[in-house]
Each structure stands twice: as structure tokens, then as C-alpha cells.
Amino acid sequence: MSHNTFGHLFRFTTWGESHGPAIGCVIDGCPPGIPLTADVIQRDLDRRRPGQSRFTTQRREPDTVEILSGVFTGSNGQQVTTGTPISLEIRNVDQRSKDYGEIAHSYRPGHADITYDLKYGIRDHRGGGRSSARETASRVAAGAVARQVLASIVGPDVTIRAALVQLGPHAIDRSRWVWDVVDQNPFFSPDGGSVGLFEEFLDGVRKAGSSCGAVVEVVAEGLPAGLGAPVYGKLDADLASAMMSINAVKAVEIGDGMAVAALSGEDNADEIRAGADGNPEFLSNHAGGILGGISTGQPIVCRFAVKPTSSILTPRRTIDSDGREVDIVTKGRHDPCVGIRAVPVGEAMMAVVLADHLLRHRGQCG
Ligand SMILES: Cc1cc2nc3c(=O)[nH]c(=O)nc-3n(C[C@H](O)[C@H](O)[C@H](O)COP(=O)(O)O)c2cc1C
What we know:
The chain is of the alpha+beta class.
């Protein structure tokens, strides 16, 4: 049994717990000769790092990554991958186990405490152990390597970007979408006009000791047609699985997603014309860039819904490990909306799926 590994040809395994000495991952199958330095990985990790605003957990983790294996600096001075396993380590430095005494014997409603105990009969309750989203730092590190693979093989014009498009009940105004705005506010919102409302709303949620959910949209552009395969290797199926594997994600949509049910056949059809460069030109993208499980060359669009953080200060009814009915209040440092820091994680999962499918496509079709 091995359920800590993701991917086929570009494959990574994550390891570690929230309050252990370190977390990390081993990436196997990365082609040789791909430029890779710790700085490149660090850039992505810094976007996911906790404690960067009052709207995320105040746990102070520098999330400094160290490359332990799989790279070599050649005579030209450039550090590149060697084709051997790439091992990445991120030390945990700001653990505070005493915050979690409350959940050592009681189960947080909405969290994984109860299912870990039901399944394994033992769990590391400190910070949620393996169920903690500390694990997502390792995915972001693997995603940074995947981006390097895509840039090296497809070209530098590949972009994988994500944004928060809804906070609690408040959706952004999509007509004001500017990608450059995403990294200029603490919510990763692409709509500068939404920021004031988001601040006011989330301050209220935080001060009330509560939490809220969010919707994140991930868009990949500049990729060729042909990624993904029928029938059990569909790109959309693998993307859905990848996004759904992120902690607290409860729904995934591709393209128009759930809204397609209300469209007519005419409206949903992405009509095709002959493009000036000889390639097909699609007149719309309801399909989210994927038909029959295979990329069309259009932007690949995926959205996911993140539930409200289950660790909240409002007392909730639960049971303890002896089956006694108790109330629980979860202290400690928690994100009032985990959807914010899920934005870079969504980008990473898109990147690993695409890198894996790119290598699989080349393996079969050259
Ligand atoms: C970036 C990120 C940070 C998270 N931080 C917290 C947190 O501080 N407290 C918490 O209770 N859950 C947090 N979660 C969610 C839990 O990890 C998740 O709800 C839990 O593992 C149960 O899994 P499930 O919600 O996928 O069923 C976070 C999720 C993400 C994506």
C-alpha cells in the first residue's frame, strides 16, 4: 500500500507531519538537464508560507527548502537535474504542540481526527499530524520542479496561475480581473475592487472566532493540444483528483463546471474555425480546454471550493476517544480561511498533473 505518491512518469512522494522535525518530498522521473535551484522552488514556497498577513495562521515557518539530491552543477556553472530522485527537505521550526492538548482525545467536527482514529487506531494529534496542510508545502515544492519541466520542454510562455474568486459568500467581479493584482493583496484576488470588502468580511469572521470557505480558480495557458488520454487517463479526471486531494477541498469544476447543466447545446458548443496559423481556433471555452480527456490547446480552467476551517473558537459538540459527549473549542494558530493559502497549492497541483501528462504524451506519441 502506498498512498503518499502522486503521478505516473513525473511522480512525487511526500513525507512528514506538522510537528515532526521536517517535511519534504522525493520526486522521481524528472528528466535530466532541467535547470533547478533552491531559489526557484523557494519563490513558490514563499507564496504559500504562513504568517504573511493577519488573514492567515500566525505560525511562523520560513519554509526554507534544501535540495538533498538529484541536481549537479556542470562545467558551465548551471545547476540542472540529473534524472535521479530529487529529494527536497523543509524543516519545521515553529511547532507549538501544547496548543493541541484539546484535540489529543477529542475530535474536531469537520476535521480528520475521528477518521484517522477509526482507521489507524493511532494518530499524531499535534497540529493534525499528517492530516495537517503543512503537507501542502511539499506539493508546492514539487510543483515548482514541475513548472521547470514544462518551461524546459514546452517553452517559457507556459503560465500556471491561480486566484481566489470567492471568499465566503462574496464573489469577485470577473469584469475587473487583472492577473497582476493577484500578488498585490493578501487574498490572491484578481479583482482589486474586492479587497476592501474581503478585509472587512474576514476581519469579522476572525474576530468572531469563526471561519469561512472560498473558491479558487486555476488557469494554465500556453500548453499544446494532446495532453491527456482516453479513457482512464483523462486530463480532466486527473486534475479533479489532484485538486480534490488538497486538504479541505470539497468540489472541483472544469471549464463551466456545474453551470453546464443549465446551458443549451448551442451555447455550450465551443465552435471551431480555421485559425490564421493553420491551427484550429475555438470561439469559446466552455470545456475548460479539455475534450475527451485531451487538451485542446486552449487555456485549461479548473475551479475548486474550499470548506471553512474546522478548527474554530466557537464551542462545537463532539465526542472524545472514549465515546463521551463533550464540547470542543480549538485554540492554536489557524487560518480563518484556508482557501487563501490554497491558491499556490492549486497552481502546484495543476503543474504536477501537466508535467506528468506531458511526459506521458511524449512517451506514447513522441
Ligand atoms: C493551506 C491550508 C491550510 C489549512 N490550515 C488549516 C488550519 O489551520 N486548521 C484547520 O483546522 N484546517 C486547516 N486546513 C484544512 C485541514 O487540513 C483539512 O480540513 C483536514 O485535513 C481534513 O481534511 P478534509 O477537509 O480534506 O476532509 C488547511 C487546508 C489548507 C489547504
